[in-house]
């Protein structure tokens, strides 16, 4: 028998909420965890594991609110992956949103990220969402944590829970992490709103419900940053006339930093305005033509009809090789579209196909 069709589970949340820690509880030392305030995960990472008789590919995603990336960049990265996951035919069985319970209040960026997550999923997919409160060991007393938990359920998470999302505490154990994933694997595959908007409706990321909110803030940030650049440029010109080289160098360094931030915001706007769905679909179709074994359809479609009906000992290895080759083709194409390096293909993506490495 060949490997069964694999499902994907997405792990999402704010930066520092414990996403990488959760993934490592499923499979030890599979991703790097950040020890400081900055997020360790900068790109989506795939980790494969087997839970009893089922294969699952867990995707660790960059956290919103990262100090090194704008939320627009993070949304674009996650959207690229989600669009390709849908185009490539990998099933999505569930999404886990992590929230650190020691956080005393919901800040504006936290609310924006949560709203964006809600919009990204869409109401039809909320039954496949699990909302987890994490880091209970960092709360001074359980009563304080329970009060925050009630507020989340009654206010910030209420609409998602009303539409089928499951909310629970996470005790930080490997056993509970695996139990949560096993439950999600019983779901029927879901299609998220961001996937429908990008692939079925042909919307640009900035025109999707999730992207529109970010785009508004991004345009405000860009205008503010343009003013900072102009101010830094004026100060640099004045400093150059003073004849003080140390002052001039400090002002030049500041100007260059402000200019880099402006370029970063412009790049984010360009990504938000791109037709990601069409770009990815065109590249996916183009790459598949060079990799016939990565074509669409079920695994059995590649096998001759008489071999599908009579899987005897002689034909079983042929069927297995055909399925394995087809998986290799699909995963190679998947990696190609995302622009992953050879190292990433070997150590991150190929395990998705059940391919033994090393």
TrEMBL record:
Q: Which UniProt keywords apply?
A: Chloroplast, Coiled coil, GTP-binding, Hydrolase, Magnesium, Membrane, Metal-binding, Nucleotide-binding, Plastid, Plastid outer membrane, Protein transport, Transmembrane, Transmembrane helix, Transport
Source domain of life is Eukaryota
* Cross-referenced SUPFAM superfamilies: P-loop containing nucleoside triphosphate hydrolases
Q: Which residues cross the membrane?
A: 333-355
**Record region (Disordered):** 292-318
Pfam families from the UniProt entry: AIG1 (PF04548)
Topological category with respect to the lipid bilayer: Single-pass membrane protein
| Family matches, as Gene3D superfamilies | P-loop containing nucleotide triphosphate hydrolases
AIG1-type G domain residues are 9-143
Compartments in which it is found: Membrane; Plastid, Chloroplast outer membrane
Query: Which ranges of the sequence are coiled-coil?
Result: 215-242
Q: Does the keyword Cytoplasm apply?
A: no
**Co-factor requirement:** Mg(2+)
**Protein known as:** AIG1-type G domain-containing protein
Q: What is the lineage of its organism?
A: Eukaryota, Fungi, Dikarya, Ascomycota, Pezizomycotina
